[in-house]
Structure formats: C-alpha cells, structure tokens
Design brief:
The chain has 199 residues and is of the alpha/beta class. It is 53% helix and 15% strand. It contains 10 helices and 6 strands. It has a 6-stranded parallel sheet, with helices on both faces. The protein starts with a strand and ends with a helix.
Length: 199
C-alpha cells in the first residue's frame, strides 16, 4: 500500500486529488493539511511514503517545508508555476517529482507510482522546459565558459582545469567570472547548482 499525504491550501484541490488517488487499489491518502504550519506540526506523526505538496501557500512556500522533510518521505511538488527555474529549485531541494496543476489524472497516478518505485517524475512538457533551458544556458555562454563551468561542476579545481585545457589559472578564473556574471550567480556553489541539472 502506498500511503499519501496531501498538502494544499485549496480544499477542492485536496478533495479532487484524494478522490482520484482512492480509485487505485494500492494507494490511500492518510492525511491532508491546508498550510505549511499545520503540516510542519503534524507531519512527524504521520507514516507515509509520498507527500504531494503545493508550492504556493498563503503562510509559507512549500519549498521551505521541502527542506525539512523527514528522510524516507518522498515529495511530489504541485504548482501552477511551471518555470524551469522553479522546477530546478524544487529538484535541488530534494523533490522527486513535479506536476503542473493542469496535469491529467493518469499523470498524477504515474507520478506516485514512479516516485514510490524510486524514480523521479516530471511531466513531459516540464521536461521539455528543462531541456530548452539547458540549450539557453549553453547559448548564453561562450563554448570555453561553458566547458570550464562543466569541469568545475565535476569537482576539478581551477588549477586542474588549467592543466587539462592548457590554459593559465588566471584565464580559467576570467572565464569562470564571466560565466558567473552572465548567469547572475555569486559563487561556485550556485554555479554548480545551475549546471547540475544540465547534464
């Protein structure tokens, strides 16, 4: 049995999702919460496998709660906002799935089953957005800037990259700084996060 928790401030959304999930023999909704604060208080007592959570809630963002999820509870984020930036942020924070509120019932069920089996589920149209965003990123940077950023993301130091590409360390730093400026990131960690989903 796959036990589900629903977190959404709209009762009608929770009710609709609950009814859809109840149609599946091996899925049951064990708890529903209407705010991040309520979920934060009551979540530890719930024994569930998957949490389906809205990102936009009146008291706090679902992304804030995502950071605090107990290990073993996998989250599928739900949102009307399907920008590549938000999808990436959710995945970086540990979400195992991302659904648009425009998803059809079959996608909801598929997402639950995929995540329960240990996979990650993104609606095909959202995956297309990430792929398009990857292309935008490679087009924003020069070929050398992109190459250096990818190598930084593998854990190589500027010195190691310089040796590998037969460049001076100073040149590596110049390309890295130019890339960071173009991508509006402040440090190597933010740069790595941006490239993590580009692979």
């Amino acid at each position: 049995m796959i036990n589900i928790i629903l977190i959404d401030d709209h009762i009608i959304v929770r009710s609709g999702f609950s009814q859809l999930l109840a149609l599946e023999e091996n899925i049951r909704v064990v708890a529903e919460f209407g705010s991040v604060q309520e979920a934060r208080q009551k979540l530890p007592a719930c024994k569930a496998d998957i949490c389906i959570m809205d990102i936009s809630m009146p008291d706090e963002s679902g992304l804030d709660l995502l950071k605090e999820m107990p290990s073993g509870l996998h989250c599928i984020m739900l949102s009307v906002n399907d920008s590549a930036v938000i999808i990436k942020k959710a995945l970086e924070l540990g979400a195992k799935g991302y659904l648009s509120k425009r998803c059809n019932p079959l996608e909801l069920i598929q997402a639950v089953k995929t995540v329960y089996a240990g996979g990650i589920y993104l609606m095909p149209e959202l995956m297309s957005k990430l792929v398009a965003d990857k292309q935008d990123l490679s087009q924003t940077l020069t070929k050398r800037e992109y190459q250096i950023c990818e190598l930084l993301n593998t854990g190589l130091t500027a010195k190691e990259i310089a040796e590998k590409l037969s460049l001076s360390v100073k040149t590596v730093y110049v390309h890295r700084d130019n890339a960071m400026s173009k991508l509006n990131v402040k440090n190597n960690v933010e740069l790595a996060n941006l490239f993590r989903l580009q692979e």
